[in-house]
Each structure stands twice: as structure tokens, then as C-alpha cells.
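Methods, example record. To illustrate the input and output format used throughout this study, we show the complete record for Arginine N-succinyltransferase. The sequence lines were provided to the predictor; the line carrying C-alpha cells was produced by it.
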Amino acid sequence: MLVIRPITAADFPALKQIAIESGPGFTSLPDHDARLWQKIAHAEHSFAAAVDSPGDQGYLFVLEDQSTGDIVGTTGIEAAVGLHTPLYHFQQNTVMHHSAELNVLNQLKTLTLCNDYTGTSEICTLFLRESYRRNHAGRFLSKVRFLFMAEYPQRFSERVIAEMRGATDEQGVPPFWNWLQQLFLTIDFPTADKLIGVGKKSFIAELMPRHPIYVGLLPQAAQQVIGKVHENTIPALKMLEKEGFRHRGYIDLFDAGPTVEAQLSEIRSVAQSRKVPVRITDVSGEHTLAVANTALQGFRASFGKGARYCAEQQQLLLSPQFATALALQEGDFARFINLDQR
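The corresponding predicted structure is encoded as:
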């Protein structure tokens, strides 16, 4: 059985291995020991803190295969981004150049450096080992964050964002990066990627263009990938779009991937989740449910057909194995969603 729980210091070796496996471009989980230890400590503190409004908290979860004890995935939420380390994006705009005398009207697209998402919550750090990418595991790993946010909405901003990985070439380098490197940064992509991953972002404010950039002046290869996602990210984007996330014109500085956003209360899995008491019994449900307990530091969640909602009694029927995995007793409350709904 696969179970989500908060990360602990004992998970460092597994987190280190996942950081290696995830490779370049996964900046929220860099292969950097000090940064990984910092993330674990920050998560432990965040889960333990008494919070009534979003601040500098980060909630990092691990997915554990209880049959082996292996950590096979991660998923996370940042409560309010950009409060201490700035979060930069390019905002896409359109400007009008008009000459009444010549009867000419030109609409020109621009990119402007901004910090417009400061203070928003961000879902991030989603990684699942390839051998487990089946049977709803990826879907669960994404949606379980919404169960946690639905249970503790006071800990998060009403606006939630997700940064999607942008398109790359055959060498794994974003076409959008090439012109930026030549004109402004003069460092290679792996170096910039690593600096971002370890939180060293001051070079962005120091070296990036401070004035709007006319998109039409960029190389064609760079223009074509603006707002486009990496081919491996298409399923994740479609899943978030079904949850209600939309692209409002903000893109990543280096790979031009879109940042999507939604209102927390309007996210489909948040709005449709139900919190009901548990009855423990032998059960085989028709649908695959994602179920979470309502604890904070002791948060546990899993998925499967050993759960079924009884509408007549307004109870969640759970198998003994399911209940044990989530540390639930008869009469405790649990929150669930249907993973089969597309």
C-alpha cells in the first residue's frame, strides 16, 4: 500500500536519491545536501507550527511503499512564495503603437520582469519514480495536496499557482534560454539552474533586463516555446486544467514554461472533497478513492478500493488495512475524493 506522510530527517537518503533521479530542471529539489537538509528541517517546523495565516511555511510529503519501506515519490506545497527570496516571472503583455497620420496600428507582444505572484501558495516538488507511474499513483500524488489544503485552508493563500516545466531541445536546454544567455547572463543553463535550486537568485535582479522586451525581436526558436510545456509535462498540465487552473500570461524566466493559477476554494478537488466519519468494515468499493486523515503532523493519506462512501449513513466505509495505514479509528473523521473522476 502506498501512503503519503510528512517528511522526516530519517528520509534524507531517499530524498537525496530522488534529487539525483529527478535531474536538471527540477529546481525545487536540487542535488545539494545542505539545501535538502534545509528543506526537511523547514518542513518539520512548518508541520509543527501553529498557523492561522499563510507565511514562510513549506509542507513536503513523501510517498512510502509500506510493503518495502521505500520512499518512491515526493509532493509539496509552499504556503506563501516570494516573501524572503523573490519569485520572478515574465509577464506577457500587448502594447499598441499607433500613428494616426500614417493610419498604422501595431499590436506588439512584450515580456516584463515582475514579482506579481508574491504571497501566493504554490504546489510543487512532485516526483514519482518511473516504476510506480501506474494505477492512479501519479494522480494521487498530485491531488493529495488538495486534500491537505482543504483540511487546513487557513494555512494557504486563496490564490494557488503551479510552475510548469517548459520546452527543451534534444540536449535538454530550453530554446528560450539561448538568447537570454547570450545577451544578459553569460553563464550556462546547468549553472543557472543550480543557483536557482539552492536559493541564490540575486543574479536575476542584477543581470536580467529591467525594461519590457519586444517578443518579435527574439529568435524564432525562442518565440515558439513561450508558454509551452515540456512534452513530459503535458499530462500534469491537463490534470491541473481539469482542477480549474488557468494560464494568465506568466512564464518562467529561463524556459518560458507557463505558470498556472486557481482560487483555492474553486479547485475541483478542494470543492468536491468530503469530510465524514469513518466506519471500519470489510469493504470493496466500486471506485478508487483518495482518503486522508485530518491530522497535521500525523497526516496520512492513501488510495484504493478498500474504501466506499455510504451516502445514506454519510459515512466512509474503510477496510481494516486502509484504516490502519491512515491511523484511523472507528468514528474518526476522514476526507476523501474520487480518483476515478476525470
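Annotations derived from this record:
The chain has two domains: 2-89+115-269, 273-338.
The domain at 2-89+115-269 is CATH 3.40.630.30 (Aminopeptidase).
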